[in-house]
Amino acid sequence: MDNYELLLDGHVDLLRRLSPDEPGGDHCVEAADAVHDFLETGVVAPVDSGWGTTYRLHADVLAGFRRVDLVRAIERLESQGHGHHIVVRAVRAQPGHQSPHHYFVLANVRGLVIVFDAYGHLVVQGRQRILDYATLVVGVPPGSFEYAARGFDVEARNSLDGLFAP
After folding, report:
1. What is the per-residue pLDDT across 117-161, written as a single tens digit (0 to 9) for each?
2. pLDDT digit string (tens) for 34-61?
3. Which of 21, 17, 1, 20 is nearest to 9 (CA)?
4. What is the distance, to the nearest Å, from the Cα of residue 52 to the centroid of all Cα atoms in its chain?
5. What are phi and psi of 131, to 5 degrees?
6. In angstroms, rounded to a whole number, what is the distance separating the alpha carbons of residues 36 and 21?
7. Phi, psi of 58 (to 5 degrees)
8. Residues near 12 by Cβ (< 8 Å), separated by ≥ 6?
9. Model pTM?
10. Residue (of 26, 45, 35) closest to 3 by Cα position
11. CA–CA separation, 160 vs 149, rounded Å?
12. Which of 42, 118, 119, 133 is exposed most, by the fewest CB atoms within 10 A?
């Protein structure tokens, strides 16, 4: 069993271990990074949550984001197959959220694209449910191009017409 399957099968425990606090504060960036790190390494490294936390992000994380069409990102992950993931940043236009952004991971596990949201301790499976999650939980309609992603390799990025915003 690889890290993707371990996360899916043990998500209730693992997401809480990666992001132990109840949702609140401002640590969704770290929570998404912890999921990314777990998928890459298998290491469970809990985040330090709360306001004013210094993010323990890799140096290229924020610089590597490009605006993306969420539906096409899902399609790309479906075509890549098991064991691929991206970190997604949603830009919220609606007031009332603690942060103008929300970060989560989209991953292909056993051929299914799944949201792993360690900050909210959520796992969302199925395209329509992911789009509903994007609109209702994240607060950003999927077709708005207010999403950015990192994790697609350069060759994939160059071969996907319409995946990235102009």
Report:
1. 998 889 999 999 998 888 877 777 666 545 666 554 423 333 334
2. 898 899 899 998 887 544 344 444 444 4
3. 1
4. 21
5. -65, -40
6. 18
7. -65, 155
8. 121
9. 0.80
10. 35
11. 14
12. 42
Amino acid in position 104 = F
- Give the tokens for residue 58: 């890799």
Q: Hey, what amino acid is at 60? A: D
Structure tokens at 96: 């009332």
